[in-house]
Amino acid sequence: MGRNKRALSPVIATVLLLLLTVSAAIIIAGVVLPFIRGNLDKSTECVDYRSYFTFEEKFEFEDDSFRYNCYQGDNLYGASIRAEGNEELSEDIGGFKLVFIQKLGDSVSVEVKSGELVSDIRMLDAVKTELEVPKSGEVKTYVYDSGGKIYDKIEVYPLLKSGRICQISDEIELIKCLPNVNLG
Amino acid sequence: MKKRGLSPIIATLLLITIALIIAIIIFLWAKSFIGEKTTKLEEPIENSCGRIDFLAEAVGRSLNIVNKGNVPLYGVEIRKKGAGTIEDVGRFEQAVNIGETGSISLVNGLNSGEEVIVVPIILGEAGEYKKAYTCGEDYGQEITI
Q: Which of A94, A129, A158, B126 would be B131's cystine partner, CB 3.0–4.6 Å?
């Protein structure tokens, strides 16, 4: 067992270290970054939709002013929804969720998606049998039949085509419909 | 045990270089997440919307637009009003420069007596590219066909 052992030369050792570093960098760039980016995209996809849908508080039409976010009788509830944003944002929108809330805390939610038929909710324009989701700049009004339950507030949540439900976009207190609004 | 190592100057330079490279990588990576803002005249394009001044008038099946402001119009978007609804009818890319008058032929689907909102579209810049931007409805004009 002599003490005169031979090892790698410093040059070879340095080259090996450099090669290891470059390989590690390539692996991180190829695998880890796309993985993180994919997850980050998912977690930030709702950011642009924070106030995408808003309740149209006052609707001016034919020299009159209407407030469609209201209730009529014991069961009919109106919700007038405006889509803000631009066309690019509209492309990823699949619909929205309306949540009707009682003062005591009970609530019910209804999903509105284009082309669908839902028994409890319809368009205000009775000619349109299928539901329509407003595109950027548009306003649509819906009528919800609560089946006799009383609600005090509505909230709207955007639904993305990816299936994700975003955080609340807007909310409004319900009032009794004025005589110029007919939800029937 | 007289070991030789990197000189302090080389070590410092290496550290600075590595830090710079990491900063550049993070910047390029993060840049892709932050959408490029549309601007006009080196300010947010929304400011230019506030300076738009135009007159829209329906004459028969045509819509005449007079640009009275100091922002060129790239086009207009027409939205039809109904009971509780505002629907997008179409987008017309008809440029109307400052002081000029343009005319648009109205599409089918609009009837006489209907209320429409004419919303201006202007051209901005997003990075190296030109991008059309539709102003808010507040900057539009309501007319009756």
A: B126
Which of A138, A143, A144, A183 is the best mutation test for B, with the most CBs of B within 10 A? A138
Q: Between chains, do A82 and B86 touch, taking CB under 8 Å as contact?
A: yes
Residues forming a β-bridge with A159: A95, A165
pTM for the structure as a whole: 0.76
Cβ–Cβ < 8 Å for B74, B123: yes
* Cβ-defined contact of A124 to B137 (cutoff 8 Å): no
Task: Write out pLDDT tens, residues B10-35.
Answer: 888 889 999 998 998 888 777 766 66
| Residues of chain B found within 8 Å of residue A135, distances taken between Cβ atoms | 88
- The CATH class of B39-144 is mainly beta
- A123-179: per-residue pLDDT in tens? 998 888 899 999 998 999 999 998 888 999 999 999 999 889 999 999 999 999 999
